[in-house]
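R.M. (postdoc): so does anyone remember the format we settled on? I'll just put the structure tokens first.
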């Protein structure tokens, strides 16, 4: 039967080592500095990784995706509009989907006339509630013979005077929020009549 492994085995030759080094042993005590001479500290994985994190800074909360997210603004279906004096930082954040959507309207299955009425009610209610960011799902129109009918109509509805005065900017959603099949709309706190630039 194999000899049982014990942590005490490793200290079995300690007595011989002390004799060789001519160390005095008194009442079970050994001069610590002499005994530790030549010993090197070995960092554990955890300690080393903590030290590395201190040097590199805090680790990002989100892991890097295996594939980079597609930039919707590079797609031919991308749609965007904004008031002439919009802050460029706000516009960039809108494109990146940085704003939290507070309400969503899905227009799938509706006719143009139905969708127009529903959209008007939706915007009116969002303004009444003081919402700042809403999403309208209209689809990409890939199955429609005439193309993205609802999507194209949405641009016209936004430009209507009753809606335009409340719209600060809009852009196609990021891919994980619907992509070109959905539009994120930023609303103003107060109405104003300013020109809206349309892209796409």
């Amino acid at each position: 039967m194999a000899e049982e492994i014990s942590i005490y085995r490793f200290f079995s030759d300690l007595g011989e080592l002390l004799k060789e080094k001519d160390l005095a042993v008194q009442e079970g005590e050994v001069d610590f500095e002499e005994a530790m001479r030549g010993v090197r500290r070995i960092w554990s994985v955890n300690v080393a990784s903590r030290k590395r994190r201190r040097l590199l800074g805090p680790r990002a909360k989100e892991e890097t995706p295996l594939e980079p997210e597609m930039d919707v603004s590079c797609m031919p279906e991308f749609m965007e509009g904004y008031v002439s004096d919009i802050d460029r930082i706000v516009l960039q954040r809108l494109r990146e989907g940085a704003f939290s959507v507070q309400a969503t309207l899905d227009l799938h299955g509706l006719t143009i006339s139905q969708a127009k009425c529903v959209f008007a009610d939706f915007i009116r209610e969002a303004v009444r509630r003081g919402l700042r960011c809403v999403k309208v799902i209209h689809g990409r129109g890939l199955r429609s013979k005439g193309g993205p009918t609802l999507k194209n109509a949405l641009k016209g509805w936004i430009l209507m005077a009753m809606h335009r005065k409340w719209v600060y900017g809009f852009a196609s959603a990021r891919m994980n929020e619907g992509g070109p099949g959905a539009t994120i709309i930023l609303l103003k706190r107060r109405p104003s009549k300013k020109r809206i630039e349309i892209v796409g």
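R.M.: ...and that's the designed sequence above, right after the tokens. Also worth knowing: The longest strand covers residues 167-172. Residues 60-70 have pLDDT under 50 and may be disordered.
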